[in-house]
Amino acid sequence: MTFLVTIGRGSMDLYSQKLAPHLRVPKIFTDIYQRVAELFNVPLLSCTSLRSIREDLAFLRLLRGLNDAIHFPNHHMGRYALFLGKPYVITVHDLIRYFDLKGYAVFIHRPNLRDRLYLHMDYAGIRKALAIIAISHTTKRDLIAHLGIPEERIFVVYHGIDHSLFRPREGRPLDEPYVLFVGSEHPRKNLTTLLRAFKLLKERNRRMRNLKLLKVGASGGREASFRQETLQAINRLELEGDVIFAGFVAEEELPFYYSGAECFVFPSLYEGFGFPPLEAMACSCPVIVSSAGSLPEVVGDAALVVPPTDHVALAQAMEEVITNGALRRSLVEAGLRRAAQFTWEKAAQETEKVYEIVEKRAA
Q1: Which residues pair with 155 in a beta bridge?
Q2: On the CB side of 76, how many CA atoms lie within 13 Å of its CA?
Q3: How confident is residue 207, by pLDDT bands cut at 50, 70 and 90?
């Protein structure tokens, strides 16, 4: 088995980069997925699209030259796996783009013609895999329900957390108290509900007048005006000056942002797993998540869970965490215990067990 490690800053790149050092198999490092991610919403008949075909074919020739099976680290590499002609394993993180493709919701962006063609190839590649690693039981259920994958071909392996990095730290990025959100501004991240809850919190409790909402991470890709939509919501709610955009923050700096926060809030409408809540827990930050997707599965009983679109319930949860010392301490202690259960060593061991099953099936 050869494991592909994708170079990039996205969560699926992070998965491959963190898992790789603990796998006892050969690795190939590639930036192909970073280029794939940058091409969403590019017109089919364009110089950029045509140039990418040449790069795709070169990458496929490289893969075909390998002598053993391949583990593709994310589902958008299904487009290569489909034409590989040899056994392979593929990790599926979520079906977010599938739901956008089918029109069930707009979690990121409606796919254009080029995206639809490539996404169909991705999901066809997933269906042909000898084994599929799902990063949560939520993703496994989605694979069964929406792609018709037999249950016996799907293996759930949770992500890990880098505990040498994500631990409580001294020092704060802001002098003022702040609520922290880490992620993009895609519609699925549900940032507007958090903004409404934050506005209500500041209106209901005058002691919160100095509280800030600190948003870490890029707005999203070039598919839509994600930042513009966020700014419009901020203007409507008259929160100018109360919301701070930190932009991209290097991974080694993130623990300081988590450790200094009053609480971490993650109100997503859908997550296949979601690194940030566990990272926050590992840094002794109390966590509030929505009840959507895999989030309840991941956080267990170590976080407050609220309905994803109920901004009143979210405002109440934030107020309780910030003002109730006993609740805060309870969440911090439970969060540390919960985060400790997720390690990359454990993820690698369980991944290698899947490899063993694949080898027996391929023999």
Answers
A1: 133
A2: 21
A3: confident
- Residue 41, pLDDT > 90, answer no
The whole-angstrom separation of Cα 34 and Cα 117 is 18
pLDDT tens for 133-158 read 999 999 999 999 999 999 999 999 99
Under 8 Å between Cβ of 307 and 286: no
Question: CB–CB of 299/266 below 8 Å?
Answer: no
Label residue 212 by pLDDT band (50, 70, 90). very high
> What is the C-alpha separation between 59 and 67, in angstroms, rounded?
15
Homologous superfamily (CATH) of 2-160+343-362 is Glycogen Phosphorylase B; (3.40.50.2000)
Facing residues of 343 across strands?
161
pLDDT band at 363 (very low <50, low <70, confident <90, very high): low
| Among 69, 101, 106, 302, residue whose Cα is nearest residue 187 | 106
For residue 123, give Cα distances in angstroms to 54, 58, 271, 330, 357.
Answer: 21, 21, 18, 42, 22
| Fold equal for 2-160+343-362 and 178-339 | yes
Contact 213, 198 (CB under 8 A): yes
**Ordered DSSP codes for 198-249:** HHHHHHH-GGGTT-EEEEES----TTS-HHHHHHHHHHHTT-TTTEEEEE--
Average pLDDT over residues 9-25: 95
d(CA 346, CA 291): 26
Q: How far apart are CA 351 and CA 91, in angstroms?
A: 10
| Domain ranges across the chain | 2-160+343-362, 178-339
Compute the radius of gyration of the chain from its Cα atoms. 21
User: Do 158 and 135 touch, CB atoms closer than 8 A?
Assistant: yes
Instruction: Write the class of the CATH domain 178-339.
Output: alpha beta
Average pLDDT, the chain: 94
Cα(202)–Cα(325) distance, integer angstroms: 19
Question: How confident is the model over 166-199, as pLDDT tens digits?
Answer: 999 998 899 999 999 999 999 999 999 999 999 9
